[in-house]
Amino acid sequence: MKSSREAALHIVYRVLEEGAFASLAANEVLKDSGLDARDRSLAREIAYTAIKAWNTIDWALNLYLSRKKLEELPAWIRCVLRIGASQILFLSRIPPWAAVYETVALAKRYGHRGTAGLVNAVLRRLLLQKEQLPYPDVKEDPVGYISLRYHHPSWMVAEWLSRWGLEETIALCQANNVPPPLTIRVNTLKADVSFVREVLAQEGVTTHPCRYAPEGLVVDNLEGLEDSLAFKRGLFYVQDEASMLVSHALNPYPGSTVVDAAAAPGGKTTHLAQLMKNQGQILAFDTHEKRLYLIADNCRRLGVTCVELHLEDARRLGARYPSVADYLLVDAPCSGLGVLRRRPDARWRKDYREMEELAELQLAILKGSLGVLKPGGVLLYSTCTLTWKENEGVINRFLQEIPGVTPEDLSAYLPSLPRDLREQARRGQVQFLPHKHGTDGFYIARLRKIGS
What we know:
four-stranded antiparallel β-sheet; 4 domains; Alpha-Beta Plaits; 49% helix; alpha/beta; eight-stranded mixed β-sheet; 14% strand
């Protein structure tokens, strides 16, 4: 690759034209690019911006394409225009003249003189008129306005508007466009928080405490974190703060038996082992053998010895392992709408119909795994999504259809919750939101099995 923009072009082409996943495409392109760290970072920033704001960029470009619309142009030229527009519209630190000049140079390489002239004309018009783009009126068409202003699918915006209203939806969409902080969970089986902070500081990695998770740290500078001696020694695990709170909400005691019904890659499994002081038994299940290897690798690095791995469908656990567990964790497969800020392409891969199918799967897992619990046992249900259908909707249906299960107050297990979540917690459930709590969007519900 001759430049960061050319690398960005190849990433965007692979994702938007060939359907590749953004992180994989970026890693593959940049691995052999020959670019230095600074240029690799710029390439990723340009590409991820173009992918994340794909709908807005294509809409804006079509405003200034007269003879042919964007979809009628050659695929490489479409992507050349997209990376040029992403810089002009959203990356203010890049000088506009540089964005236009370098993009036109790419158009010459990946097209011909005529397409280079087209790219030059379109980008210059966009540059001159970017402050006057005719976005829909927010009052007359709030879905269209938010979708284009903040780069989210219309169906997703409509879903959130109906639930949270205009201001909340805009704030949520804005938060989804900001890269999240990197948080790590200190492995208290090996060290305490202050010791790990000192070790990381000696390696040039500075941190500060998380707001809600007692063993959580926010990493201030990311360079070299996973190459650090602290990582290799198993002193921490990279995990979002809300995800850490799932294990605290279950709160298993040392010596107990826990079933983790959908355990890979093992973040919550190993955290449960921490809370249990490596005493007792955790039966960790997954439906894919390769994913079980991930759990095993994490257990080895972190020094976790109380986990047994099993290849099994969570929907059959109750029949296969009746009344063996004091605690059951169902961290269910979900649509992942709470982690959109982590993956620039994720929002464009979602489909509303997927929520319907996932809600049925989640309910089936709850029903099929409940039998592993002893009477009086605790069930913890969690997802990293924001849809009512997959969260409250699933729990409501479960409670209606299965007798002998009741919600349980969460507040005692999550004492550092912000004020707006405390009332939810008393009802046995909480919904973390990126724009309010600075975490991934996570839903947690605690239930107790009171019947046989």
